[in-house]
Amino acid sequence: MHRFRSTLPVILALSLLGCAHAGPASDSAPGRETAAMAHSTDATSASPQLSAEQVGKRFLKLIEGLESRDDLSLERIRDVMGLSLRNYESRSDDFYAYSQLLEDDWYFSVDYLEPSPSSMRGVGLSFGKPFPAEFEPNPMPASLCVLDFEYYHNALKAMGLYAEPVCDEIGRLRSWEYTKFNSDAVDFTLSIILQNIVPGEPGTLCVKSIDMLNGR
């Protein structure tokens, strides 16, 4: 899949409709850092060590193969992404996650939420750094931003998802949402939370997390 880095300013200018530049965003899925700390080196023979680029591409492949939210399962995540998620009862009986350390003490986490009376089935991918220094900027290293926002944006649009920016109350870009419609109804919506621009890489936006919104 081609990357059109030069088109990103055009995409943002045409789509944001008044949004200002993106700032740091918080993790949209509480409990991930706890899970990461519990098994941040959880690679096993069934779950190989992956780079940020590899896990990002496998996550996009998972999304591309979904006809509906109901297609999600632990088995499908394992088959497509090659990762074995395990349950964390401290978070929820229905919450499963897999985390792995990357360079510079960063980690990625893939989590899955089983359906319940209060929650719909969902999956997410996030990148984080445990216990960052308070009040200090924590930009994502360039090596973890090989698949930048533009790559994910173009990939999800190529899958037929409708893309829409989300701004805060003063017009700053907060996130992007990508919605899959099936028979004129919303099937699922993904939310991309943006990370800081990589130092020394002007114009490059990184992706901190991609989550399937709950919808309830």
Put simply, the count of helices is: 5
* Helix/strand structural class: alpha+beta
Unreliable spans are 1-18, 20-30, 37-41
Q: Mind describing the biggest β-sheet?
A: 8 strands, antiparallel
Overall shape: it is globular
Tell how many strands the DSSP assignment holds: 8
Distance between the termini: 34 Å
- Largest sheet, spatial ordering of strands: 1-2-3-4-8-7-6-5
The helical percent reads: 10-25%
Provide mean pLDDT, rounded.
78
Amount of beta strand: 25-35%
Radius of gyration using CA atoms only: 17 Å
Order of helices and strands: HHHHEEEEHEEEE
Can you walk through the features of this model?
There is one protein chain. This protein is an alpha+beta fold. The protein contains 5 helices and 8 strands; from the N terminus they run H-H-H-H-E-E-E-E-H-E-E-E-E. It has helices spanning 8-15, 32-38, 52-64, 74-81, 149-158, and strands at 86-87, 95-101, 107-113, 122-128, 162-167, 173-182, 185-197, 205-212. Strands 1-2-3-4-8-7-6-5 form an 8-stranded antiparallel sheet, sandwiched between helices. Helix 3 (52-64) crosses helix 4 (74-81). The longest helix is centred in the first third of the chain and has 13 residues, at 52-64. Residues 1-18, 20-30 and 37-41 have low confidence and may be disordered.
